[in-house]
Amino acid sequence: MKDWFTIEEIDSNTFAISEYQHWEQTHCYLLNGETSSLLIDTGLGVANMKEIVASLTKNPIQVVTTHVHWDHIGGHRYFQNIAVHKEEESWLTEKFPVPLAGVKSNLLHKPCDFPVGFDSEQYEIFQGQPSRILADGDMIHLGSRLIKVIHTPGHSPGHLCFYEAETGYLFTGDLVYTGKLDAFYPTTNPVDFMHSIKKIKALHPQKIFPGHFELSPDPAIIEAIDQAFTELATQNKLKQGNGIFKYEQFSLHL
Ligand SMILES: [Zn+2]
Ligand SMILES: [Zn+2]
Fold first, then answer.
1. Cα(108) to centroid of ligand 2, in Å?
2. Residue range 165-191, pLDDT digits in tens
3. How many angstroms is it from 192 CA to the middle of ligand 2?
4. Alpha carbon distance 197, 208 (integer Å)
5. Residue 1: predicted pLDDT
6. Where is the Metallo-beta-lactamase domain (predicted)?
């Protein structure tokens, strides 16, 4: 049986940890600094991510959450230091906004060879206390590396991207990927989404690393998404309930 996680080296201190066997094709990212490491998201939570991370660094791990959706916090239970934006703190500590049955139907949406030992009957949504609350502009120090927190609401109210100026890497979570970008359900906001796209466009990242699907699409996709949103706004179509708009590399679900 194939390993559940796929590790890809972005550079000698940066790794993608992906779950390609699941239809969501989630990506988490490990950034090794001199004194500590940053783990961006923890995936579906169907296999032990801590073991994989331990094979890539002996540093203490800080987990940051791009947003509190089940497919980004699944492995949070394996780690101690978890950070999240204020707007989604209560989703971790009090009440996840989607019922377990809804999460499971997503998890089991397409046939999948889950890892040995995984039992979907036992699957639970992570709930726990964050050790740090993040805000726009916060800096995360990893010794030799410095990562900036960018608040990018729209897909969810506390959605965060993480930017490293030195390398030009931008970790985009569910704000940017090659697939269907979701802004159609109650906790999303298409107008905020558009503004967040404009915000990250202004950073001119060298490379982007999304939460799903293609690992490192051309950053020009940000410009294309911006154009799509701007056009819909101009036509007064940027409203929830308007359906799916398809473009070459992505679609927008409003
Ligand atoms: Zn999401
Ligand atoms: Zn996602």
1. 15
2. 999 999 999 999 999 999 999 999 999
3. 17
4. 13
5. 52
6. 25-212
